[in-house]
Amino acid sequence: MTAIIVDDEKHCRDVLALLLQRFCPQVQLLASCVDGTEGYQAIEMHHPDLVFLDIEMPGMSGFDMLEACRFTKFDVIFTTAYNEYAIKAIRHNALDYILKPIDKDELVQAVQKAEQERLTRVPAKVESFVDYLHRQKTGDRIALPTLEGLQIINSEEIYYCESDGGYTRFFLTNGKVVLISKTLKEVEDVLETKGFCRVHHGYLINLRYVQRYIRGDGGEVIMENNKNIPVSRNKKQEFLNLLEKI
């Protein structure tokens, strides 16, 4: 398999190249790129089988680079520090990733998985991931199917969403409440990459409107509209991790 590395950190590029040489001899490294622009040029020139791609880079991010590529017939293994939103996007599209610092066993496993997918002719997933990124960038506008028709709102107009059986209530910043015939899980699938977090089986909150967090078994969130929302014990750590990144 031919491959390129795209990472703005030199020591990360060097370590990954060394690990590939020692533990993945089936991988032929064609280029080691310092940013997304150089990575884009290398992909268009070499048409690699595999791209090891960092996400957060100055200028052109890893996601931006993928969107720019005209040649997308390659597999991607993201090499990244922990980023909850990015990891959710990657998992959603069944792409592979390795958290930094890179573990050799995880690297070998990821390369073997990519190799196996190419042998079994599994279609490349990059195209679908790029489509996903485009959908996320069409704006934060979402359509709520109400009894009267579709109500178009921006995600920033939502304080939080509350489950009501097979329905979901949207509590908006203008004081209105909109009821739609979608489950909270369906709503979560749309909003989880837009700064929302499922803090409880009954609540999905907009992180930008969290005013306070009160510690407890799971804890409790105070929203800017003074609504108290419980945080379940099993959602607490994920919520706190996301809150630290705001």
UniProtKB/TrEMBL annotation:
UniProt-listed PROSITE patterns: HTH_LYTTR (PS50930), RESPONSE_REGULATORY (PS50110)
Residues bearing the modification 4-aspartylphosphate: D54
Statement: the UniProt record of this protein carries the keyword Phosphoprotein: yes
SUPFAM superfamilies: CheY-like
Annotated Response regulatory domain residues: 2-115
Keywords: DNA-binding, Phosphoprotein
Residues annotated as domain HTH LytTR-type: 142-245
Example GO molecular function: phosphorelay response regulator activity
A Pfam family: Response_reg
Ranges annotated as spanning the membrane: none
Entries under InterPro entries matching the protein: CheY-like_superfamily, LytR-like, LytTR_DNA-bd_dom, Sig_transdc_resp-reg_receiver
Gene3D superfamilies in UniProt: 3.40.50.2300, LytTr DNA-binding domain (2.40.50.1020)
Family matches, as PANTHER family: STAGE 0 SPORULATION PROTEIN A HOMOLOG, TRANSCRIPTIONAL REGULATOR-RELATED
UniProt protein name: DNA-binding response regulator
Native organism: Larkinella rosea
